[in-house]
Each structure stands twice: as structure tokens, then as C-alpha cells.
């Protein structure tokens, strides 16, 4: 039988599926073009039998039709990042063992010049297809695709080593999508603006595939531009918007430079939406509060990763808590465990582990890493969180964000949030630096703002008072090597290093 995604699309034939600067495309257009692409990929074969097809296409209708065409031919889609340099593209193509490459003409030169393109063509009969080539007019009989088959390989970088290929099946994707559609109440009347990269799970699953599964409209921009996004929001016809914190920061900056009249129109456009979501990184409280004052929306934060889809979410209806990522989504089980794999009580930090039908199948051709990623059937995320009043709060990556200092475990993310509340600090990043006495010292890189210089004594007093609750030992709350002027005051360089 056809994939459920295809069956559902057939129910919305004449409805608009994709809007781009090139025009509007219906679900019928998407089904027809994807079947032509599938026919071209098959070349009279019955089934691609999970051959990997890498594709480098900018966001738009051609991207979606190609992705669907690969799936309908029985292939595994391997999306490439349009901004990646040659070595990274080469790594993904080679590691995935792609036998076919599909490219937009804009990227023909970079792909044709890749060393693996030549070697794979010779050794593995690699095909190179341009999206500008004429598509077949006669549609082949397309294979029946079981949903347990592999569908997608996304490459994710851990904190160490080369990126690993995360393999998800059609069944995994269906579980991830239906979980979000249930939780966020997607319908065919929704219209979402898509501004996210299409080689990451956020853009592929949360926005694109959820929209098309629901029979909604997906308005795709080829690249992010704050003014363009605001213009679309001001049109007042969007119902959903999803982005990362960096994008919200840029949208806030553009709003602040607009005229009062324009600001009013911008805010009214936001108010017409039913939901705005932030994810993929921690959302600073000051950004959340500023966006709420502009848009009237208390951004919905959620937590997920490439291997599991989305696992936790603040509620669509009901109270959302700043700094929290809510509760487990439908079909998802979540637990927190200590270093011995034992469950931790509420209020105690532990590693997030996840189980459910949305969890990925394997790391591509890496059984050792796959086995290491699971504990008794639970996926080990490597992230630390704590449950408070039934809601999860992320403390950071175990490997980099949890700093072990003076016998305490300190969350770099929590310290960053505190430091950002200082009126003279615009932005910061906190890391642990090896130290013989303390194990690790807490190090922060600061971007300063404001007209008054930051004085050493005032900052030390301020930091001691506010960081004490996070059990940062007071003995190491010292500031070193800050550039000072002749008066002994810390000057205002773009970035200063602070050891505390």
C-alpha cells in the first residue's frame, strides 16, 4: 500500500500545499511531481530497496517533491545542507553510501567537483541528476512501501567525533508527526511560515511534514530574512510560527527599529496566530519576555533531538512556565536516571532517557554507537534535567554544560541565565575549565553593554549573591585578567573572559 503521508495527501488534491516565491502548488502538484521523480529514480527497476539518495536543493517545492519522490521509489532520503562546505558534503555522501545525487543547478559545480562523486561514479555507478532535467511523462508503477522501512538519514554532530547518520523509518516519522499533531492540534486550515533549514529535524518534521500530514499550507522562504518574515506576519493570514531563539532575537531587533505605526501592525499580525513555538536551543527568559510584550504570545518551548523527534512540550492550552519544557508528548515515555542508571526522585537532576515509537532505528552502519546509545530499551539523550512541579527543566548536556566544581554539579545554562539578568551584560557563554583544586572552574565569556564600565567589586558582590543558590562555591567567585583602565575599572571590550 501507499505510505500514509501519500494517502492523506490524496484527500487534499486541489488544496494548496506549498507556497513559495515561485507560486502556489497543490497537493495534486506535489503528488504528480513526486511520482515523476520516483519514476525517474527507478529507471524501470521495481524498487530502490533502500538505496541512499542524497539531495542538495534549496527550500521550496522542488525540495519537497524530491523528498517524497525518493520515499515513493523506496529510497532513503539523505538531505544535504545548502550552506555546508565541500568537505562536509563529501563526508555525508561517502558515509551514507549514496548511489544517487540529486542537485539544483545552483549546486552543480560544487557537487560535480567532489572527489567522492568521481570515485563513487566509477566504483558504485553513482548517478548524478539535476532538478532542471525533464521529468518522465509516463508514471511507472510505484512500489508498495512498508512503514517499517528506513526513510531518512539525518547527520547529527555529537560533542565528540564525526557526525553520525541517524536513521528513522517511515513508522518513526509517522509517530513523531502524529504526536505533535495531537499535542498542538494541527488542522487542514493551518498556515505556517517555514524559515528553518531543511537538513534538520526541526524544519523537516515539526514544520514541513506536520503541515503536509495535516493537509495544511506550508509557506516556504528560501532563506531567513527578518524584514521578509515580518512582512509575511503582517499579512495576518498565518496561524503557526516555529523558530529558534536566534531568529526571535533578530525579529525583536527588526521590530525595535521599526516606526510606531509599523510596530503596531507587526504586533497585530502576531496576535492573529494561534501558536508560536521556540526550540532547538534554550530560550533566554529576557527574549521570551520581550517577545511576549511584542506579540502577545508566551512562546511554547519544547525539547527534542534528531534521534527521538520531540519528547517534551509545554501545553498548547494551560499555563506555560518560563525556563521549562513541560511534560512528555503523546506516545512518548521519559524518565530521569542517575549515573548508575537508577531512577532519581522528583527534584533531583538526572539524565533524560526516552522510549517510544518515534525513537530512531539506528546510527547508520555504526552498531557499536547504536548499542551504546540505549539502556534497557531507553535512548540515552546525554542531556540532564530536573522535574519540578511535574515539569521538566533542562540543565544542559552532561558532557559540556554540567560543570563539576568543588564537589558540586553546576548547570552552565542556569549560570548563563543569571548572568544575562545583569544590566551591563548583553550575552554570555559559560563553560568549565580544568582546575587542579576545584576539578573545574566556571568560566564565562561576556559581551558587555551599557555606558557605565563594569567594576570588579560591584560585579563580584552581585555574582556571589545570585549564584549562591546554584551552589557555586564562594571561594572561586573571583575575577581575573579583566582589562582595566588607569582608574582600576574594567573597560568595555567586545568580549571579556571572566573566571569565577
Automatic annotation (TrEMBL):
Residues 8-364 form the AMP-dependent synthetase/ligase domain. Residues 414-489 form the AMP-binding enzyme C-terminal domain. CDD domains: MCS (cd05941). Belongs to the ATP-dependent AMP-binding enzyme family. This is Acyl-CoA synthetase.
